[in-house]
Design goal:
This protein is of the alpha+beta class. It has helices spanning about 70-85, 110-120, 170-190, 225-235, 245-255, 310-325, and strands at about 5-15, 25-30, 35-45, 65, 90-100, 125-130, 135-140, 145-150, 150-155, 160, 195-205, 210-220, 240-245, 265-270, 275-280, 285-290, 295-305, 340. It is about 25% helix and about 35% strand.
């Protein structure tokens, strides 16, 4: 269930993104590490978003969650990124951690999606359930990675997060502008010559429990450019990597102790017949790791020279708190007191 569409009747599954320029309706989950899964479905119909199973979500215990980076490791990582910035290696890098908790074998991703739809609606919410192919992803993403309509393409990077608009700092605006420049550059590699437009810069968007700064970047694809070329130019999303992207990715690999998987990747749909599609950035995203018997969730923050390590840790807590509480059957207000245990995964 993605973009207000319910897709059933699985036909094909492939890891080759050239399929997205063929025919039919495809669900797409692309891991941050670069492995895409594209699933074509026979039957697609519009839905009001209420077609979820009646049975309750069987989530983990609230005290069962562990984190790939604890507070000390995360704040130390922020300090190390600031040293990279001082040395001129990078302007910004997104530092993330993965939370994990055991779940029962009968836990159903569709039930979790229904829970989030009721209590944490999001503009790019959806669920992709392909258990035989190792993909069970539930997203409540607020962020648009790519929207394509024919040759027109648009991205909506988010950088800058606070509890309220008053919490947003000059650092948050600078962070957003840096990533907008990166996204413009990425799209410029596959769009027609000339400026890639930014019709909205640092607009404030309100979401359950927090606010974001959101910008809009728009371009027009060159003739002959399809999904493979577009994804090659833009993936992973700039808002969850950093700038310059290649340097940020090297720093991320050195500091993070767990693969991000679908978190910070792309989740969405492509209608190859119409030439339309919409991929969200896989943030505010859960995925089920059946091989380990775990539910996973990622959270992170963009680090700049103006970052304060403790404040960045608190931003990762803010982003995780509400959704992890919901998935654990916990009252949201109680989640503020949680402390995470550390686990290497």
């Amino acid at each position: 269930m993605l973009g207000g569409r319910l897709a059933t009747g699985l036909m094909d599954v492939t890891h080759d993104v050239t399929a997205l320029d063929s025919e039919g309706f495809w669900a797409v989950v692309a891991d941050f590490e670069g492995r895409p899964t594209c699933a074509r479905f026979r039957d697609v119909r519009r839905t009001d978003g209420r077609r979820f199973p009646a049975e309750p979500w069987r989530g983990p215990r609230p005290d069962a969650w562990t984190t790939s980076l604890d507070r000390a490791a995360y704040t130390n990582g922020v300090t190390r990124i600031r040293r990279h910035i001082a040395a001129g290696a990078v302007y910004q890098a997104n530092l993330c951690r993965v939370l994990s908790a055991p779940i029962a074998p009968q836990a159903d991703a569709m039930a979790l999606a229904g829970l989030l739809a009721r209590h944490n609606p999001a503009p790019y919410a959806g669920v992709v359930r392909l258990p035989r192919h190792g993909v069970e992803v539930v997203t409540a993403s607020p962020e648009l990675f790519l929207r394509r309509a024919g040759r027109d393409v648009l991205s909506g990077p988010i950088k800058g997060t606070g509890r309220t608009e008053a919490d947003l700092l000059e650092k948050d605006h600078a962070e957003n502008v840096m990533i907008v420049d990166l996204v413009r550059n990425d799209l410029g590699r596959v769009c027609v010559p000339g400026p890639v437009a930014v019709p909205d810069l640092c607009a404030v968007e309100k979401h359950p429990g927090l606010v974001h700064l959101v910008s809009t970047v728009r371009g027009r694809l060159r003739d002959g450019v399809g999904w493979p070329e577009l994804l090659a130019a833009t993936f992973p999303p700039g808002s969850v990597t950093g700038a310059p992207k290649e340097s940020a990715l090297r720093i991320i690999e050195a500091l993070e102790t767990a693969p991000r998987g679908p978190y910070c990747g792309g989740v969405g749909w492509v209608d190859a017949d119409l030439g339309h599609g919409e991929l969200a950035v896989g943030i505010r995203t859960f995925w089920i790791d059946r091989s380990a018997g775990l539910l996973r969730f990622g959270t992170g923050a963009g680090i700049t020279w103006g970052s304060e390590p403790e404040r960045e840790w608190e931003e990762t807590e803010l982003k995780a708190r509400r959704l992890v509480a919901l998935a654990s059957g916990e009252r949201v207000r109680r989640a503020a007191a949680r402390s995470w245990r550390t686990e290497s995964i």
